[in-house]
Structures are given as C-alpha cells and as structure tokens.
Write a structure and sequence with these properties.
Largest sheet: 7 strands, mixed
CATH architecture of the largest domain: 3-Layer(aba) Sandwich
Order of helices and strands: EHHHEHHEHEHEEEHEHEHEEHHHHEHHE
Helix content: 40-55%
Strand order of the largest sheet: 3-2-4-11-5-12-13
CATH topology of the largest domain: D-Maltodextrin-Binding Protein, domain 2
Mean pLDDT: 88
CATH superfamily of the largest domain: Periplasmic binding protein-like II
Strand content: 15-25%
Shape: globular
Radius of gyration: 20 Å
Number of domains: 2
C-alpha cells in the first residue's frame, strides 16, 4: 500500500564524510542547469530546418553554423581535458553545453525547446513518453562489473533489521514513482517475491539528502541511496546500515528530442558527438586520475581525496557492441512500471534510435563489451 508521499567494492563505500560535500556539490551544479538552459533559448536551435526521416542514413557532413545544445557535464570536462574538443571543432560541431543531467531537468528543458540532448539513466525516456515528450536514445553505455559498482544500495534505518531482501516485508520504503529510485524499489520487490501490498511505500521525492534524513529520523525503514550518500548516511548515523540490491542498475544513456534527431544538420552533428563521446569514455577509463582532476576537482570543486573515492565507486565504463541487451532490460523495466504504476504499455524500440549504435561501436573499436557484460 502507499501512504502520501560483503564484497570488496561495497566495503570501499564505508567512511569519509567528505563525500557529503561531493554529493552536495554535484547537486548544486545541477541546480544551476535550468538557468543555463534558459540562456540557451536566446541562441535558437541552430539547425538546418531540413527534415531527416528516422529511417534515413545519418549524414556525415555537418553544415556550417550547426549548434547542438547538450546537457552532459562530465563529458564536457573530459573532451576539454583530453583535447577531443578539437575533434568536434574540426568536424564543424559547435556544442552549447548546459549544466543539466537527469530526468526532471532535461524533460522540462525539452518541453521549452531549450535543449537537444541530455545524459540520463533509462527511466527518463519512459516518463518522457508517458508525459507526451517525444525523445530518442542515441547513446548507451554500461558499467564493467555492475554488481561490484552499483549505482544504489538500500539504506536501512537505525534499529531496523534488514539484512536481506526478504526482510523488506512489512517495512516502510521511500518511494518516488517518477525517478530511477522508484523503479529500483519495484524491481527489488519483484526480485524478493513481494508486492506493493506487502510493504508500505512512502511517497517521497529523492532530492539532495532527503532519503538520508528520512532514514535517520526513522520516517522510513528503507530507502535507496546513491553511492556517495551511502557514505554520508553511515557517517552521520553510525547505527544505520546498507545492503546491496543485487540488481543491475547501470543504465546510462543520452536521449534527445525527436525533433532534434530529425533535423538533418543536428543529426550529422550528433553522429560526430556520439563518436567523440565514446572516445571520451575510453579516455576516462585510461586516465582516471586526470578525469578526477578535470571533472570532480576542477569542475565540481571537490578535494582530491573526494574525487579519488568517487572514481573508485564509479568503476569503468563499457561500450556495448550492440544495444540488444540494454534494450531488453529497458523493455522489462517499462513493462514493470506500466503494470505497477498503471501506465500505458510501451514498445521501447520506438524510443531508441539504433542508427547511432554502429557509430558508437565503431568509435570503441576493440574496447566494446559483449555478452552478459553488455
């Protein structure tokens, strides 16, 4: 029912309250995204106006003056630090960077035609479709060893006994239907063989450290916590704990307004951007210290120690040889949310533009991941 609103990798998540500043700094940067996106409106869309059919081949040549408006903060830092920005410039691609990522901010910017594309997990593309905003996924990546580097764990309130998913029965669980955390809760219940009737879902949006506070005050018994917030929580509330979900939660995408993908000039620019973004993620894997400095320290204002800790949590990024497995996981999630949240059933193939799949794989070369890793 709903009321208004030990493995080595996991051991590495204990301690260091400095990561509270890490989480806060990243949230502060994202909060400024709406302001920057608004500023982009004055720049116009800077496309060709020529319509490209979604079934047509992606053009290679980028017309002069083409601008793509991208919310992809970490990649912005990488391309500038690695020199890959020169590759964008050489191809005639001008990127208007927006300090935006995540579903709520990007969907709002899409609706105002203030943004072309944004980095997100997998849930935003579903909710964009369910709320009338047409988008296409043009990039997908995964985490190498995703269960060793999970995005979320389940935080457990002080004094509450939850050591396995079976212990969730009868517990109050923080739940935000339109966020990735909400989808994770439903997937966790499914894995545990439980239904929403077996627990008490407490409607609570995950913003800042809201879930940390809810756990500490015992407003809820259990809440999904991001990697940095697990450290924050256990430092602030030593009697609290966290358990792994055992669920793969590493989906990472770029999704764009369908209108932007159908603009011939922007489509050509996005083809280049996908290739450069792939190279940027390979650079990140090969240069973790430089990435930590460029993004977490210089861009986000964190200390070297905080940056190093977050790099350890992130793990390495993999580029899938094909999107088959990622799309299958997305379909499973869409089906689950449609059933549990009473949404219209979606065919996720309509949300994914697989013309970009080969562009990404070609740029990754021999570094692509296959099989269960993809």
């Amino acid at each position: 029912m709903t009321t208004p609103p030990l493995n080595p990798a996991l051991e590495a998540r204990r301690g260091s309250h400095r990561l509270q500043r890490a989480a806060r700094s990243r949230r502060t940067a994202l909060a400024g995204g709406a302001v920057l996106a608004a500023a982009l409106t004055a720049c116009g869309s800077n496309g060709s106006g020529a319509v490209l059919a979604l079934s047509a081949s992606l053009p290679d040549k980028v017309p002069s003056g083409t601008v793509i408006r991208i919310g992809d903060p970490s990649i912005q830092a990488i391309v500038q630090a690695s020199g890959l920005d020169k590759e964008l410039t050489a191809a005639g691609v001008k990127v208007q960077w927006a300090n935006i990522s995540g579903g709520p901010q990007s969907i709002q910017a899409f609706r105002g035609n203030k943004l072309d594309c944004s980095s997100v997990a997998d849930i935003p593309s579903l909710f964009a479709a369910w709320t009338g905003t047409s988008t296409k996924i043009i990039f997908q990546s995964v985490t190498i060893d995703p269960l060793q580097h999970p995005t979320y764990e389940l935080g457990v309130a002080p004094g509450v006994k939850v050591t396995s998913l079976a212990d969730l029965r009868g517990k109050k669980i923080a739940y935000s239907a339109g966020q990735a955390q909400g989808a994770l809760v439903l997937r966790v219940l499914q894995k545990a063989g439980l239904s929403q009737k077996d627990v008490e879902l407490v409607d609570l949006t995950s913003t800042g450290d809201s879930y940390v506070t809810a756990l500490g005050s015992k407003a809820v018994d259990v809440a999904p916590l991001g990697a940095a917030n697990v450290k924050v929580y256990e430092e602030k509330y030593p009697a609290g704990s966290a358990i792994p979900t055992g669920i793969r939660d590493d989906a990472s995408t770029i999704y764009c307004l369908t209108g932007s993908v159908k603009d011939a000039a922007k489509a050509a620019a996005l083809k280049t951007y996908v290739a450069v973004r792939t190279k940027a993620l390979r650079w990140k894997n090969q240069h973790p210290d430089e990435y930590a400095k460029a993004y977490y320290e210089d861009s986000q204002g964190l200390s070297a120690a905080d940056a190093k800790a977050l790099i350890a949590l992130d793990g390495k990024t993999g580029i899938p040889a094909t999107w088959d497995n990622a799309d299958a996981r997305l379909q499973q999630t869409a089906d689950l949310l449609a059933r549990e949240q009473d949404h219209k059933k979606l065919d996720v193939s309509t949300l994914v533009d697989r013309r970009f799949e080969k562009v990404e794989a070609a740029a990754a070369g021999s570094d692509v991941v296959t099989g269960d890793a993809s």
